[in-house]
Structure formats: C-alpha cells, structure tokens
Design goal:
Blueprint lengths: L2 H10 L10 E3 L7 E2 L5 E11 L10 H19 L2 E11 L4 H18 L2 E9 L3 E11 L14 E4 L5 H9 L7 H12 L5 H6 L6 E5 L3 H12 L2 E5 L7 H7 L1 H10 L5 E6 L4 H6 L5 E7 L3 E5 L19
Parallel strand pairs: 4-5, 9-12
Antiparallel strand pairs: 1-2, 3-6, 4-6, 7-10, 7-11, 8-10, 9-11
Helix pairs in contact: 2-3, 4-5, 5-8, 8-9
The structure holds adenosine-5'-diphosphate and magnesium ion (MG).
C-alpha cells in the first residue's frame, strides 16, 4: 500500500474527515481551508508523541489514537476555545493495515467526542511518531491565557489529579491491580477527557488557565511566572480519586497528584465572586489554594506549614 492509498483508506475515509462547521476544504488539496466567524480568533496548538518517550511501543493502537488527539485537544480546552479541526502528521516504520485501522478508529472516536474534524496531515516513513495540530475558535480577547492571575484570586482545578501518573506502572506492565482499581486509572491514562466545555464556561471569568500535563506544581509554576504572582496550594484540598488512594496509599497518591504528569485537567485562577455561579451551574471546580503577592508555587499543609517539595515535574532535556 502506498502513501496515497493509506491516506485515502484510513484517514480521508474516516467519519471525522467528512468536513463540518468551519471547514471550507478538507483533505486532498495542498492546504485545508478554515473559516472563522468575524470577531473570533483562531487558537492553534501542536503536540508530538514519540514512541518510547510519550507512549510504550508497542501499545494498543486504538487507545493510542484516542490519547494522541485527547492530549492535543486539551490545549484548546485550556484556552477556552471551541474545537474546529485538526491535522495529523504520521511517521510510521512500516505500513500495517490492522494497526492503521485501529489507530484511525481510536482517533475518530476521540474526534467525534471532541467535535474536531480531520482536515489534513502528512505521512512519512521513520520511527513511530505522531504530531497533531488542533485548531479552535475563540471570541476575540476572551482566550484563557496564563498571564492574568491576580493576588486574591482562587486557584482551582477541574477534577481529580494523579490518576494517569498512578496508572503508569499498570500501562508499563510493571504491576497489576484488580479491575475496580485498574480500569478507572487506565481510562484516565488512555482516554483523557479534554475539559472543553469547562474551558468555554470559564471565558470572561478565569483570569489565567492551563491544562495540567507535567504535574500540578510544575504547571502552576508557569502561571505564577507569567502572571508575576505567587501561588499557594493547600495540600489537603488537592482532589484525588478513591481508586488512586487504594492503589498507591494516601501519601503516594498525593505525590502523584502534585507531581505526576498526564492529568489533562484544567488549572485556573478565578476571582472569588465568580465561584458561586460556576458551582451552581454544576461545573467541576475544586478550590485548592490562592494567588498571593510574590513569586513561585508554595505548598502548605492543613496547619499552614510550608511543605513545598524540591522536584516539581518532568522536563525533556533536563539533566
Ligand atoms: P503535499 O505533498 O502537497 O504536502 P501530501 O501528498 O503530503 O500533500 O498529502 C496529500 C493530502 O493528504 C493533503 O491534503 C494532506 O493534508 C493529506 N494527508 C496526508 N497525510 C495525512 C494523514 N496522515 N491524515 C490526514 N490527511 C493526510
Ligand atoms: Mg507531504
């Protein structure tokens, strides 16, 4: 099977590649064409997943398809953008029809869930690597950036943390757990749920936002740095799941929630006056701390004592 047959069979034929709102021209020409309503801006983000670095190789291609798009779509959620479309640059060592079929099915599944249309990409031979670029639209001036946190704002997260980090030894086959514990943790790892609706609900309300991919403490450091404020996190208010606590024990579960990666849950700062409405509307908003004058991210225990750990999260190229 050649490059063009592959694109036609597995990607151009996928339900998510059949166009939709905002897609003027999809797969098949030199560029795709998107239209953005006047008064809105285009939000764009790229994520690369390298075999052996970002996912175990071999792994289940259906799950990889889901996960590769979910991690990219999570950046749209973090900006408060409405999903439009995505491209897929696929580097493959060999063409295996079964693998491609399953990958495309997983991708399509997440695309339908996130309301994203596949509009193009590139297909090359080499070590397995996936680059996905997502496009969204957001009313001009209302994108949720990282730089607006104000002293006095609440620091919030959109859900339980640490599940995906907790799942990693299960993913890597280093240990096992009974299904009642393993299944919810593995679901978080393989099928993150980008918080797209929450991101859109936070437009005009949150003062800063991002999606947690490298661990809560590390990612909150980005908000603190660009907003030129300090963030004070209350350890006991960081939400973790029952499955994670049972699997790892309370102390390690907390560690996973603070420093483990791959959550793809939103973290955001919010003037306290905005909280009651969001909670009344049923959005998952967990207050975990506050924005303060100063710099950096501090962690405190229930008595207010500083318990900030030294190591914050994962960084490529760090010695
Ligand atoms: P070009 O040589 O002009 O860059 P290609 O031959 O690489 O174009 O691709 C042909 C068409 O197929 C383009 O519209 C491109 O966006 C699309 N395409 C290529 N690879 C993929 C893929 N993996 N998934 C979706 N669309 C793809
Ligand atoms: Mg090309």
């Amino acid at each position: 099977m050649g490059e063009f047959e592959l694109i036609r069979n597995f990607f151009a034929a996928a339900p998510c590649a059949q166009g939709g709102e905002g897609v003027v021209l999809g797969i098949g020409d030199d560029c795709a064409l998107l239209s953005v309503p006047s008064g809105e801006q285009l939000a764009i983000s790229t994520d690369t997943l390298v075999a052996g670095v970002h996912f175990a190789d071999p792994c289940d291609p259906f799950l990889l398809g889901q996960r590769s798009l979910a991690v990219a779509a999570s950046d749209l959620a973090a900006m408060g953008a409405t999903p439009l479309a995505f491209t897929l640059a696929l580097t493959l060592p060999t063409v295996e029809a079964d693998w491609l079929q399953a990958y495309a099915r997983g991708l399509n599944h997440m695309a339908q869930r996130c309301d994203l249309r596949l509009i193009g990409g590139d297909t090359t031979r080499g070590p397995l690597c996936l680059t996905l670029t997502v496009f969204g639209r957001v009313p001009a001036g209302l994108a949720l950036t990282r730089n607006g946190a104000q002293p006095g704002d609440l620091l919030c997260v959109g859900g339980e943390l640490g599940n995906a980090a907790g799942a990693l030894p299960l993913v890597l086959g280093q240990c096992s757990a009974e299904p009642a514990i393993a299944e919810p943790l593995l679901a978080h790892y393989w099928s993150p749920q980008p918080q797209l609706a929450l991101g859109q609900a936070l437009r005009g309300k949150a003062t800063a936002a991002l999606d947690i991919s490298d661990g809560l403490l590390a990612d909150c450091g980005h908000i603190a740095a660009v907003s030129r404020v300090g963030l004070r996190i209350e350890n006991h208010r960081v939400p973790t799941s029952a499955a994670l606590q049972t699997f790892l024990g309370a102390a390690q579960a907390q560690q996973a929630a603070l420093s483990g990666g791959d959550d793809y849950v939103l973290a955001f700062t919010l003037p306290a006056a905005e909280l009651p409405t969001l909670q009344a509307e049923g959005w998952p908003v967990h207050v975990i701390g506050r924005v303060v004058e100063g710099q950096g991210v501090g962690l405190v225990d229930e008595q207010g004592r500083d318990i900030t750990p030294a190591i914050r999260g994962y960084q490529h190229f760090r010695a």
